[in-house]
Amino acid sequence: MTLRTDIYPADRVTLREVGLRDGLQLAKALPSTDAKIDWLTQEAAAGVRHYEVGSFLPAGRFPQFADVRQMIETAQALDLHSAALTLNERGAEAALASGVREMVCVVSATEDHSRANMRRSRAAAVDLVADIVAMRDAQAPDKLVNAGIAMALGCSLSGDVDPAEVLRLAEACLEAGADIVGLADTVGYAGPRAVGALCAGMEKLCGDRPFIIHLHDTRGMGVANVAAALDNGARVIDASLGGLGGCPFAPGATGNVVFEDVVFLAESMGFRTGIDLEKLTDVRRIAEEAMPGEAFHGALHRAGPPVNATWQAAPAA
């Protein structure tokens, strides 16, 4: 399947808001469905078009995603590109029966994390990607299959990860039929040099096909790592409103890189996002009021955009 260029165009940066999925994985105060719909609606009005809206996981164990179908329906009504996590065959069947536009699979870069996160080996996880692709082809060929490689830049369970092994797994996922592959620094292990080098390798592997980079700010490297990724061919960036999120199966994990800060960074590097930073402030307020006690982050929120300054750079080549 050829990835539709209108979904992830290669000539511009696409920012994927993962706050409604990854951002809620570790949250203690969960927003109501109405608050989540308000969040999604207002963020769409600010110009954000791509979202992970939840996970197809058992509602009894993951109540924050019990309303995933309502979130998908809301995204449909707003003509947004929606994605949801599908960790197994049951989740894939549910996703195929829904209106979600993108099914997100996970392949871990290390065996330890793969067993902890999915109770499968890495090879079995790649096989699952192929199985979900076959299900998609038979039942809903318009949907995308996204294979995200967790712990791609270092693992808190296993330590350093060989970049060559990550690229091998990425190639295996593409060969299994994934439309797009993502690389996740799941626990904020890496710095800009490692991120840039791995993204350069992915650009060479993927050619004209875009890839996703998913970064965490565990050690304060989030925005610097996004800049390194953009400098080395990444054009699809994950981030979450207020830096919410983290992996429940990754000791030491903290929130994603802050969405608002990434918008500011991309614009300052000359990549037009089409997102209104002022309106994002109002969206953040909705989330903060709906999740009392949760930690929200972000330098842009504290300082605001520069006043009386032309901070936007010339459009990137």
Q: What would you say this structure looks like, in words?
A:
- The protein has 317 residues and is α/β, with parallel strands linked by helices.
- It has a single domain, classed as Aldolase class I (TIM Barrel, Alpha-Beta Barrel), CATH 3.20.20.70.
- The chain is 39% helix and 14% strand.
- It has eleven helices and eight strands.
- It has helices at 33-45, 68-77, 89-96, 111-118, 122-139, 163-175, 192-206, 222-231, 259-268, 277-290, 299-303, and strands spanning 14-17, 50-55, 81-85, 102-108, 144-150, 180-185, 212-215, 236-239.
- It has an eight-stranded parallel barrel with strand order 1-2-3-4-5-6-7-8, surrounded by seven helices.
- The mean pLDDT is 92.
Query: How would you describe the shape?
Result: globular
Largest sheet: 8 strands, parallel, barrel
| Class by SSE composition | alpha/beta
Which spans have pLDDT < 50 for at least 5 consecutive residues? none
CATH class category name:
Alpha Beta
Number of helices: 11
Task: Return the domain count.
Answer: 1
CATH superfamily: Aldolase class I
Number of strands: 8
Instruction: Supply Rg.
Output: 18 Å
CATH topology: TIM Barrel
How are the strands of the largest sheet arranged? 1-2-3-4-5-6-7-8
Q: Give the rounded overall mean pLDDT.
A: 92
Specify the helix fraction band.
25-40%
What is the name of the CATH architecture?
Answer: Alpha-Beta Barrel
Share of β-strand residues: 5-15%
Distance from N terminus to C terminus (CA atoms, Å) equals: 28 Å
